[in-house]
């Protein structure tokens, strides 16, 4: 090897080479920039298991175009926001002790338990009396008149209002018959 001198590069240099290669630079450009042999670069890459980082695929443009998509998503967001705020106000009124009125069946168990805990036994007794003739009352109160645990109430109300729950979840007739 007359006239050729062996090159030794520090681990810091090789670390920079590796980082640049994993980010997508070509081996040839790195060999030139860091003055390392191309064969050595490929050998280290294989021995150390270097892997290129795969860039995330760009989001495909929606059929309606980005502007119409953004407007549709904004409309959905604003509708959801208004709906959530309306629900929060309704729940707050009920939680303060106003009549239950037209409350969603899916929130009823939570509200009855909350009212019993925070408004006291008189409110709990009044709620039980108000709903005692409902066909689903046994899903909410046990034989002694005590409220069942929330998970039992939720599941019982889902079973009692199975068709409504399935429709709200988008389950067509005949699909996933075991739910709930």
Would you kindly provide a written description of the structure presented here, covering whatever features stand out?
The chain has nine helices and no strands. It has 180 residues and is an all-alpha fold. The chain has three domains: 11-48; 64-96; 99-180, no CATH class. α1 (11-22) packs antiparallel against α2 (27-34) and α5 runs antiparallel to α6 (121-131). The mean pLDDT is 89.
* Overall tally of structural domains: 3
Q: Using only CA atoms, what is the Rg?
A: 33 Å
- What structural class results from the helix and strand content? mainly alpha
**Contiguous uncertain segments of 5+ residues:** none
Distance between the termini: 80 Å
Number of continuous helical runs: 9
Shape label: elongated
Helix % is 55-70%
The biggest sheet, with number of strands, parallel, antiparallel or mixed sense and barrel status, is: none
Strand content: under 5%
Give the overall average pLDDT.
89
Tally of extended strands?
0
Order of helices and strands: HHHHHHHHH
């Amino acid at each position: 090897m007359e006239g050729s001198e062996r090159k030794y590069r520090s681990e810091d240099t090789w670390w920079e080479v590796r980082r640049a290669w994993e980010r997508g630079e070509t081996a040839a450009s790195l060999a030139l920039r860091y003055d390392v042999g191309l064969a050595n670069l490929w050998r280290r890459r294989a021995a150390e298991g270097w892997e290129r980082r795969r860039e995330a695929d760009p989001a495909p443009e929606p059929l309606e175009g980005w502007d119409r998509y953004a407007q549709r998503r904004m409309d959905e967001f604003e509708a959801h926001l208004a709906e959530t705020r309306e629900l929060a106000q309704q729940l707050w009124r009920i939680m303060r002790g106003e009549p239950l009125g037209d409350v969603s069946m899916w929130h009823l168990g939570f509200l009855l338990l909350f009212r019993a805990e925070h408004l006291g036994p008189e409110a709990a007794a009044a709620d039980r009396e108000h709903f005692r003739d409902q066909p689903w009352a046994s899903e909410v109160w046990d034989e002694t008149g005590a409220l069942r645990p929330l998970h039992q109430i939720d599941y019982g109300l889902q079973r009692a209002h199975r068709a409504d729950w399935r429709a709200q979840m988008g389950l067509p007739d005949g699909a996933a018959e075991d739910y709930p």
